[in-house]
Amino acid sequence: MKLFTKYNRINITATIIIFLAGSVAFYFVLDYVLIRQLDASLRSEKQEITEYIQLHQQLPEIQNTKEQWIQITKASQPISNSITKTIPAYNKSENEREYIRQLIFMVTVNKENYLVAVNKSETETDELLKLIIPLTLSMVALILLFNYLINRRLITSIWQPFYNTINNIKDYAANQQSLTLSKEPIDEINLLNESLNKMTEQIHKDFYALRSFTENASHEMQTPLAIIRTKVESLYQLAEGKEIMMQQLLSIEDACLKLSKLHQSLLLLTKLENKQFILNELIQLKSILEQKCEERTELLESKHIKLQIDAANFEIHFHQHLAEILISNLLNNAIRYTAIGGTISISLFQKQLIVSNTGTTGSLDLDKVFTRFYKASDTGTGLGLSIIKEICTSAGFSISYVYEKNMHHFIIGFQA
């Protein structure tokens, strides 16, 4: 969830709750004020009636309206205090039931007690409330709408420098070019940009230092390895007939070959991690697969391994050399860990490549199968599957491993 969306949700929810609570409170306060106004009007009417009786010693002539009417009846028993209340009543002039505000008080005329009920309709009060409440809710809705729009525009403007920084970082990660973030009008973003500039500058220096070291080390290691192999071949001629020396020389040559393979594999992994391959060539995976299988025909026959291939012909954007390494490593891995008389099955379609082989040692460790130097046996360098994984990651492919029914399945998805 984006920060703006989360902020808006919290802000709008809090605003709605506050406005709803305020509207309810406003309704009751307004109702209280209007009722008090009605009561004041009723008390004013009472005062006029009382003053008229004191002055004329008789009941006033009553003139009722649809909004106010007065009822005078003889009191069966005196009351000491006036009573004000809201009651439902039938309004004859309006021909409907409605709530009225009623003030009841007692007057004495010629030693006779009368109860006077001054009634005032609450219709105007209700209508005023009905008018004010929708207006209030409409204002609340407008305020919420403008608040949302203003916040959206304001936050988008305020956070734009942050998004500029994020986009620059994405470009830096994709292109590995030097990151130079510009100054922004917001101090916090400026501080972030300055820190990122310093950090990426140091990362850039370390990256090129490591890359230079790797290339130099790789170049320098090739010469002594070549010398060792040349010297070992020369010593073979001197060691003819000397079995112990021949065994030692064979061990030296075997170690030298392993070191050479390890050196090449580590160099390839470094190049993959540094994104030194451009994957923009259109290649035919089927032809590469058939070529690599043909190269291993003798090895397959020597182990009596049955090879099954089901391959579709299609083109894919990749890298020729990396495609060859990927196919070779998958085949080498399958042949190495397939027992004599086993089966290797290869399926190549437009969306995936599946290489399966029979296995007798059970499932590989799912957590370590693609890690460096993981080996199910003592053969190999332990880098073949990690190279496959790194190539797939660089190309945007998915790769997974499944073991079922005594078969190892390595599945590569070309649309990850």
> Globular, elongated, flat, extended or rod-shaped: what is the shape?
rod-shaped
| Separation of the first and last Cα atoms | 24 Å
The succession of helices and strands, N to C, reads: HEEEEHHHEHHEEHEEHEE
Q: List the uncertain runs.
A: none
Strand content is: 15-25%
Would you tell me the structural class of the helices and strands?
A: alpha+beta
Mean pLDDT: 78
Keywords:
4-stranded antiparallel beta sheet, Heat Shock Protein 90, 11 strands, rod-shaped, alpha+beta, 416 residues, single chain
How would you sum up this structure in a few lines?
With 416 residues, this protein is α+β, with helices and mostly antiparallel strands.
Give the topology, please.
Blueprint: H1 3-56, E1 68-74, E2 83-91, E3 96-109, E4 112-121, H2 123-175, H3 187-238, H4 243-273, E5 281-284, H5 285-295, H6 297-302, E6 306-311, E7 315-318, H7 320-336, E8 343-348, E9 352-358, H8 384-395, E10 398-404, E11 407-413
Parallel strand pairs: 6-8
Antiparallel strand pairs: 1-4, 2-3, 3-4, 5-7, 8-9, 9-11, 10-11
